[in-house]
């Protein structure tokens, strides 16, 4: 298994410095990284790019939304952001994306994890990587494509915009190794951050999580994921 901490990563003022040895090629050919502290991959081993597109975008209907406002818990390596940006640019719709990230990697690490982006999306992503150097101040980027804000905060202490999100990507590491962002108080805050009718998608199907989502008001379903894995899809009711 991966060694915790050790020479494979170290905490620097500019973020977590991971080593390229931690790079993993997922089943659809797109790369991800294994985090040596949490000992988990940032994206699904079935396919990082597939997971972002089919599950986060697809399940939350973000791929068809005329002006998505996405709230993400765990911005990580920006794979989900890039897939969402790419989709919006291809469709010519504006994107408003708010990501939370408590343990940002160093800006250079973001460059290792490539995604098949259009030229325009790749240009925006290059700007994100330049702006990333400014962490821990929030990263705010605006352009004709829309807006990205990444708050380098622990989501358990965050205050989200109310009734704002058309989609929520709940994507921390698993509840077994990273329980805090899955707690009831975060789920309740996410419910209030969701616009009526908004979807929340996550790869965890833990019973405790699904009961928690239902307890704070979401309608909750278990749906097929990529490979054999099931996913959780929750929706804030319209009224
Ligand atoms: C599975 S990875 C996310 C991958 C990411 N969505 C992507 O598309 O690349 C989980 C992320 O959640 C972050 N995280 C863990 N606990 C957190 C917390 N309490 N608040 C905010 N982010 C957290 C981790 O640092 C990590 O970057």
From TrEMBL:
Gene Ontology MF: a single term: oxidoreductase activity, acting on the CH-NH group of donors
Pfam families for the chain: Methyltransf_30
Stretches that traverse the bilayer: none
InterPro entries: MnmC-like_methylTransf (IPR008471), SAM-dependent_MTases_sf (IPR029063), tRNA_MNMC2 (IPR047785)
Record domain MnmC-like methyltransferase: where: 147-230
Highest taxon of source: Bacteria
Protein name, UniProt field: tRNA 5-methylaminomethyl-2-thiouridine biosynthesis bifunctional protein MnmC
Source organism: Meiothermus luteus
Gene name per UniProt: mnmC
């Amino acid at each position: 298994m991966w060694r915790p901490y050790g020479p494979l990563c170290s905490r620097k003022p500019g973020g977590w410095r991971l080593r390229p040895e931690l790079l993993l090629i997922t089943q659809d050919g797109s790369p991800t990284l294994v985090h040596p502290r949490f000992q988990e991959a940032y994206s699904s081993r079935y396919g990082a790019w597939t997971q972002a597109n089919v599950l986060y975008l697809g399940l939350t209907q973000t791929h068809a939304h005329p002006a998505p406002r996405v709230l993400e818990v765990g911005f990580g390596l920006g794979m989900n952001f890039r897939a969402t940006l790419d989709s919006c640019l291809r469709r010519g719709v504006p994107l408003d994306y708010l990501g939370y990230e408590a343990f940002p990697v160093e800006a250079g690490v973001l460059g290792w994890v490539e995604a098949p982006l259009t030229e325009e999306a790749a240009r925006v992503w290059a700007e994100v990587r330049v702006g990333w150097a400014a962490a821990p101040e929030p990263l705010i980027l605006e352009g004709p494509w829309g807006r990205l804000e990444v708050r380098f905060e622990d989501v358990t202490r965050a205050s989200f915009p109310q009734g704002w999100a058309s989609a929520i990507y709940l994507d921390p590491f698993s509840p077994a190794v990273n329980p805090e962002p899955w707690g009831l108080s975060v789920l309740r805050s996410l419910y209030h951050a969701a616009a009526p009718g908004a979807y929340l998608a996550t790869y965890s199907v833990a019973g405790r999580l699904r009961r928690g989502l239902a307890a704070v008001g979401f309608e909750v379903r278990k749906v097929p994921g990529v490979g054999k894995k099931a996913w959780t899809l929750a929706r804030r009711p319209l009224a």
